[in-house]
Amino acid sequence: MSGDFLDQIFIRVKQWLLSWLAGAPDWVIQIASSLINILALLGVFLTLFAAISVLERKILGRMQNRYGPNRVGPFGLFQPIADGIKMLIKEDIVPARADKIVHFLAPILIAATAILALGVIPYGRNMTPFAIDGGILFFFAVGSTTELAVFMAGWGSNNKFSMLGAMRAIAQMISYELPLIVTTLPVVMVVSSLSPDAIVAAQDGYAFGFVPRWFVFTPWGAAAFILFFVSGLVESNRTPFDVPEGESEIVAGHMTEYSGFKYATFFMAEYIGMFAISGLGITLFLGGWHAPIRALEVIPSYAWFFAKLSTLLFVYIWIRATLPRTRVDQVMNFAWKFMLPMAFACVIAAAVWHYAGRGVPGWLWSLGVIAVVYFTLSILLDTRKKFARRTYRFAE
Amino acid sequence: MTPTLSIFLAVSAALFCIGLLAALSRRHAIFILIGIEMMLAAANLNFIAFWRFSPEPHQPTGVMVAIFSIAIAAAEAAVGLALVIAVYRHYRTTNVDQLDKLKG
Amino acid sequence: MNNVAFILIAILTLAAALAAASLPKLIHAALSFAVTFIGIAAFFFLLGAEFVGLVQIFVYIGAVAVLIVFTILLTRRDDEKDRGFNWGGVAIAVAVFGGLLWAIFKTQSLSIAAPQIETLTVKRIGEVLMTGFVWPLQCIGLLLTAALIGALILVMEEKR
Q1: Burial letters B70-84, b for 16+ CB under 10 A, else e
Q2: What are the chain C neighbours of A134 within 8 Å (beta carbons)?
Q3: Chains A and B contact (Cβ–Cβ under 8 Å for 3 or more pairs)
Q4: Do C50 and A133 make contact, defined as CB atoms within 8 angstroms?
Q5: Taking a C-beta distance cutoff of 8 angstroms, is the pair C32, B31 a contact?
């Protein structure tokens, strides 16, 4: 029972807070409940954003064989405070011929849609802030509104770099929306529900007694998770796909003309978008808040969720430290020619898995489908002939 | 005053007429498309309102028609905007008053 | 249904629609057009059709509004303001509005209150789509494919 107490501790705190309003009419209690959810969500994720802004720089630094920031506070961990103060006291420069309203609203909208998307992810047992029936669709609907906000940022700055950067960013985001959504289709099909709570509940239990029933351990789930993760990388404009905001490419793309707190808002929106996509990936494929081993189920569910989230964020940072930037036409090619057919193959493989009985034969058949499509695509999209034989001019 | 069906229909009629206003009184081709999209959305609102207030809501016919209507409106917007771009490439104008080459 | 919510959403939607129809600068009109659709999606949520509201946000704001702003960008002239406003159109629109209102409020059978219904789940919509409405679904698929190919051909550059 102590496990249950620690697991549900936040729910109990919220109910204790709501018990102070016991006599109020119904709509007051609903609004208060929503407000508590929102404040908790904002508190947790803004702290996580501050932590990851310094941890990313330290991890990047260590991977590049140097220390990261280590002056402010013990091991440099108070760096976000210094960054925050710097951003707040910087002068807010707005270009003279910029469209003031659009220029002002763009960072607000981008941050708002990113934070909205966080609301439907189950963080623990009974801990989904807003549990609606079509949660996955809500997530994608809100994510697709980000494109309009990016366009507003690019257009409102009245700057050719911004406009080009915004167009590139939107083209990239629209191209990768399709693989992102099609890779969630197998999961929705198998669970037959769009609600994130139902999807997490369907990954409960252990097959053969010790293998968790997470979807990532099925062939279609593993392939779909990899595709989802790469699409998430692109949607958050992270390296290797950060052409829209690479400094050596286009200054800062659609964020060129923003300074001070508005730039910090863009920065925050990008990281919160990362959190949201990772959270959705964990919900869909990695079993949500379930523990991987039966013996470790005493650890609270939200601790497992944040452990998985930290692992995924570490992989994001690791990829950033390791891979160079791709060219923008390579990015588009990859999306339309490889990822979309592979995503459809995952849908078919999930159907094969389901109708072959969901056991070992189903596993092998769906692995066969994915392998066939993968090798066909790699033969069809053969790029070997495009590179000439490398010759050296001097060091023969 | 709970919103009755008449109130919802009045709101969607207002939206339809604002869309009609945009489609009839502007000279830029894209504004006219915006007006048409608004009219389609007002009709969708009508469908959903009638479904909600109907005596048999277990048959989600109104919802289905609205979903299909949204899909059709998106397809029509895409083709309409492609037409606007194609016309702009030839005539360098999007003012529909100036597209009168077929006039006798 | 909450009256306060209804009044607020109605004011937001109609104000944004009026702004979209009458603002001189095209980009501002396109952006308030997007706000109108958020308002309409809120109406759908109020009426209990959440799936349609989410599809509306996804399709209209995520796709149609982005298409419109891209087209505005690609067909930009130096004189961005829309010259010429046809007041005859206003007269017709007001007349149509008057006619519709008269028709609505004259019909007695429309002044009904909302009955209590069970929530429409996405599962039910999926069932109906695959059983009763499967032919319209296939036709919509064909229509969208045709629209996609048509739009591509219209804007493809002609080979010299």
Answers
A1: bbbbbbbbbbbbbbb
A2: 50-51, 54, 122
A3: no
A4: yes
A5: no
* Interval A14-47: pLDDT, tens: 888 888 877 777 778 888 888 888 999 999 999 9
Inspect the interface and report whether the beta carbons of B85 and C86 lie closer than 8 Å.
Answer: no
Average pLDDT over residues C124-135: 88
| Alpha-carbon span C50 to C54, nearest angstrom | 6
**pLDDT value for B51:** 87
pLDDT at B55 over 80: no
Q: Do C73 and A99 touch (CB under 8 A)?
A: no
Q: What is the ipTM of this complex?
A: 0.88
How many Cα atoms within 13 Å fall on the side-chain side of residue C106? 6
pLDDT band at B59 (very low <50, low <70, confident <90, very high): confident
For the segment C6-50, what is each residue's pLDDT rounded down to a tens digit?
899 999 999 999 998 888 888 888 899 999 999 999 999 888 888
Find the residue in B nearest to C101 (Cα). B10
Residues 6+ apart with CB under 8 A from A69: A54, A57, A58, A61, A76, A79
Residue A252's contacts (CB-CB under 8 Å, 6 or more residues apart) are: A161, A165, A245
Query: What type of residue sits at position A266?
Result: F
Query: Which residue, among A247, A322, A309, A234, has the nearest Cα to A279 in the 3D structure?
Result: A309
Please answer whether residues C16 and C36 qualify as being in contact, where contact means their C-beta atoms are separated by less than 8 angstroms: yes
Alpha helices in chain C (DSSP H): 3-22, 26-46, 50-56, 65-74, 87-106, 122-131, 134-155
Tell me how far apart the alpha carbons of residues B12 and B4 are, in angstroms, rounded to a whole number.
13
The CA-CA-CA angle for residues B78, B82, B84, to 5°, reads 120
Amino acid at site A190: V
Q: A212 forms bridges with which residues in the sheet?
A: A206
Q: Which amino acid is at A213?
A: R
